[in-house]
Amino acid sequence: MTNQRISGRYRLERTVGQGAGGAVWLAHDDLLDRAVALKRIGGFAGSAAAEDAVRAEREARIAAQLGHPHVVSVYDLVTDDDGTWLVMEYVDGPALSAAVRDNGPYSPDEAARLLAPVADALVQAHALGIVHRDVKPSNILAGDGGAKLTDFGIARGAEDATLTRTGMVTGSPAYLAPEVAMGQQATVASDVWAFGATLVHLLTGRPPYHHPDKDNGPLAVVYRIAHEDPPRPEEAGWLAPLIAATMTKDPAQRPSMAAVRDHLARTTLVAEQTAVLPAVPVPPPPRTPPTAPRPERSARPSRALLIAGAVALLVLVAVVGTIALTRGGDEPSAGQTSSSPPPRTTTSATTQTTAPTVAQLVDFARRYVATASRDPKAGFAMLTPAYQRRSPGYADFWGPMKNPEILTISADPAALTVTYTYRYVFPGKGRRTETVTLRLVQVDGRLLIDGA
Ligand SMILES: Nc1ncnc2c1ncn2[C@@H]1O[C@H](COP(=O)(O)OP(=O)(O)OP(=O)(O)O)[C@@H](O)[C@H]1O
C-alpha cells in the first residue's frame, strides 16, 4: 500500500504490470469505491511527453467508442503533479502471455472459446474503421468475465497513415504481418494476421517465428516474417485451417475478422453441444472465371515480398528502432543479430497444356470424395493452398461424414470442372443429398481443387 493518491481520488495500491509505455497499478477509486487500474503515461527514456499524451487520449477515446464487454474500459484520463494517468477497468487476471508462460499452451478448444469474444471486439473495431495494430497475447487479459482486449494506444483509423508516413512501424515484432514488417501501412487484414499469430502463441507456448535454437532478436524475427513461410504448428489441431487462412502472406487473401469470429464461435458451439455443423467458409477472394485453369495464388510472391532486398533492410532498421519502444511482455528477451536466414522458398505452379479427359476428371472426383471422407487430412491435401486457406472448417465437415455415395457425376474438361450429386450421412443430422461443382487446376501436372 503506498497511500499515494492520484487526482485526489485514486489510491495506488501496487504495481500489477510494466509495459513499454509505463507501469500499471492496481488502485482504489475512493469516489466510486471500486478497484481500477492506473497506467502511467510517459516518463520512459526516449519518449516525447506530448506524443505519449496524444497516444493516451487516443486510447481513451477509442475504448470509450467501442464500449465492448471484451474490451478493457477506459474510465478517465487525469493529469496531476505526477504526470498523466489512464484510469481503466481493473481486470483481475493475467495477460495471456503470462498465462501461457506459467501454465503452458492452451488446447484448440480452450483457445477458441477464449478468443472468440476478442475476435468479436475486433469485428466491432473494424466496423468503426479502427485498426488495433498491436494484437498480441500481452494485450489480452484473462479475468473472470473472459478475455479482454486492451491497449488501443497505437490503434487508429484505417485511413490514417501518419505513423507510416513518418517511417515508423508499430506493433510487436513477432505478431507483425509481413506487409507491415516490410513497411506498409497496418490495415484490418494485418490485425487478422496478428490474431492468427496470437492463436499460434496460445497453442504452441511461444510466439510465431521464435525457435528455441535460433536467434530470436527483433531483427532476426522480422527478417523471418518477411522471408519465411508462415508457421503451421502441429499443435493447432482443428484450428490449423483457420491459422493458415489468417496467417497467409497476401493480405487480400485473409478472411475478415467477422469470418474468423464466426468460425471460432460456431466451432466452439459444436464442441459444446457435440453436434455437427457444416464448414464455415471464409469469404472467397474476388473470383476469376472458372473456365481457365488458375495459377496458384501462393505461387505468386506478394507485392510486398517482391520489394525485398535493399528496401527491406532499410525498413527493418526502422522497425527495430521502433520495436525498442513497442515491445511488450510476449517475447523472450532479444538475442543477437540474425545469422543469414535461408531465402524464402516459393512453390512453382505450372499449367499443363494437355487437358485431362472426362474419365480422368471423374476418376479424380471419385477418389477425392472417398479420400476426404476416410481421411480428411489427405482430402485437404487435394486442395490448392489458396482454397485450403478459404476452408477453415474443412475437417468439421468431412470428419464426421459417413457413407458418401456418388449418385450422378459429369465433367467438363474445357472448364476443368466436375459436377456430382452425392448422398451422405451426418451423425445426428441424418441423410443429406447435395450437388457440388469442383473447380480444378493443374499444378505441376497434378490436379488440385481450387474452389467449389
Ligand atoms: N486494466 C488492467 N487491469 C489489470 N492489469 C492490467 C491492466 N492493464 C494492464 N495490466 C497489466 O499490466 C501489464 C502491462 O500492460 P501494458 O498495456 O502497459 O503493456 P504491454 O501490453 O505488456 O506492453 P506494451 O506497452 O509494449 O504494449 C499487462 O501485461 C497486464 O499484466
Automatic annotation (TrEMBL):
This is non-specific serine/threonine protein kinase. Residues 275-299, 327-354 are annotated as: Disordered. One of its GO terms (molecular function) is protein serine/threonine kinase activity. Residues 10-266 form the Protein kinase domain. It comes from the Bacteria. PROSITE patterns: PROTEIN_KINASE_ATP, PROTEIN_KINASE_DOM. Keywords: ATP-binding, Kinase, Membrane, Nucleotide-binding, Serine/threonine-protein kinase, Transferase, Transmembrane, Transmembrane helix. ATP binds at residue 39. CDD domains: STKc_PknB_like (cd14014). It is an enzyme of class 2 (transferase). Its EC number is 2.7.11.1. PANTHER family: MITOGEN-ACTIVATED PROTEIN KINASE KINASE KINASE 20-RELATED, SERINE_THREONINE-PROTEIN KINASE NEKL-3. The chain crosses the membrane at residues 304-325. Residues 345-354 have a biased composition (Low complexity). Pfam families: Pkinase. Residues 280-293 have a biased composition (Pro residues).
